[in-house]
């Protein structure tokens, strides 16, 4: 592990002003199409599910509408299973895994749950392959009251009527090599600090909620995913990303305190998936299948506990 404060924008040791944040935003470029890779799936999904627009990103509302997909036969007596993807736009399999789940496995669960899926919370980040939003802000540190991040605030408003009804929430993410090569150096520069660069775990792992760890639930998801893709081993200190291993493939964060998407509901079963797409042992399709396996493993566990 080493430290970094080297980045082409800003002055080392000084937090960015609005001018540096604007310089960062101007340097970003569109690299793929939200319309082609995400919105195009919705037409087919409308045949089976309700597809609702719950907002749009202010940076370009026409280009970046925000959609949720939910069970057509919504029954207030049933528990809600929430699946979110693309909080970090660059984490591709989170978005594509949510869509693949809807297209393949979701109909099997529609009679047991009210399914609610927000597959791509950060479409600008998806197109520019970014962790941050246009304001150089991490949406996955912004799920709190009065959030300044529209990606978080808009979803939170949409979910308000469902408060207290969530049984399960699984938030689909990736950990990539660019976390060390781009995103942590950018974070250090933005905040005017020096940050450690950590060893990226080679495999899939979960991040549980420290205040609601649900170890049996986490174990069930890991077991389901292990049939599809390798689970990350602990490092020599028994940790992943500097956090103590709670069980095979599982660490915990204080999600609500940190403003993580995983902490936005009081669901008794909640977790964040972390796929490692840069491993030589996987490819893009395997990463998508791992996300689908995580969702179905979570749902199967919840069914057994009903």
From TrEMBL:
Q: Which InterPro entries match?
A: AstE_AspA_cat (IPR055438), Peptidase_M14 (IPR000834)
What this protein needs as a cofactor is: Zn(2+)
Give residue ranges for domain Peptidase M14.
30-306
Annotated CDD domains: M14_REP34-like
Q: Pfam families, alphabetically?
A: AstE_AspA_cat
GO MF terms, alphabetically ordered: hydrolase activity, acting on ester bonds; metallocarboxypeptidase activity; zinc ion binding
What processes in GO biological process is this protein linked to?
proteolysis
Highest taxon of source: Bacteria
Q: Identify the keywords attached in UniProt to this record, alphabetized.
A: Hydrolase, Metal-binding, Zinc
What Gene3D superfamilies is this protein classified in? Answer: Zn peptidases
Presence of keyword Zinc? yes
Q: Which family does it belong to?
A: Belongs to the peptidase M14 family.
Protein name (Swiss-Prot/TrEMBL): Peptidase
Which organism is the protein's source? Kineobactrum sediminis
């Amino acid at each position: 592990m080493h430290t970094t404060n080297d980045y082409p924008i800003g002055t080392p040791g000084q937090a960015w002003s609005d001018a540096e944040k604007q310089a960062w935003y101007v340097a970003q470029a569109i690299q793929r199409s939200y319309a082609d890779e995400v919105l195009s799936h919705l037409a087919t999904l409308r045949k089976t599910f309700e597809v609702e627009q719950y907002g749009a990103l202010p940076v370009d509302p026409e280009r970046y509408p925000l959609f949720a997909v939910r069970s057509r036969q919504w029954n207030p007596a049933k528990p809600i299973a929430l699946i979110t993807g693309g909080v970090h736009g660059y984490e591709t399999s989170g978005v594509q895994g949510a869509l693949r789940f809807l297209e393949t496995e979701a109909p099997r669960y529609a009679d047991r749950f009210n399914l609610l899926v927000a597959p791509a919370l950060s479409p600008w980040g998806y197109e520019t392959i970014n962790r941050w939003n246009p304001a150089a802000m991490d949406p996955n540190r912004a799920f709190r009251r009065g959030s300044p991040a529209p990606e978080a605030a808009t979803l939170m408003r949409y979910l308000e009527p469902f408060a207290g009804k969530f049984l399960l929430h699984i938030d689909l993410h990736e950990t990539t090599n660019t976390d060390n090569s781009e995103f942590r150096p950018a974070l250090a520069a933005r905040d005017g600090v020096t940050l450690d660069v950590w060893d990226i775990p080679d495999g899939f792992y979960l991040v549980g909620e420290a205040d609601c760890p649900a170890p049996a639930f986490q174990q069930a998801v890991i077991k389901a995913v292990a049939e599809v893709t390798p689970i990350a081993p602990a490092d020599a200190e028994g940790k992943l990303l500097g956090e103590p291993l709670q069980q095979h493939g599982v660490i915990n964060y204080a999600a609500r305190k940190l403003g993580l998407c995983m902490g936005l509901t009081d669901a008794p079963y909640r977790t964040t998936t972390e796929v490692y797409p840069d491993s030589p042992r996987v490819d893009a399709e395997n990463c998508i299948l791992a996300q689908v396996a995580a969702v179905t493993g979570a749902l199967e566990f919840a069914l057994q506990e009903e």
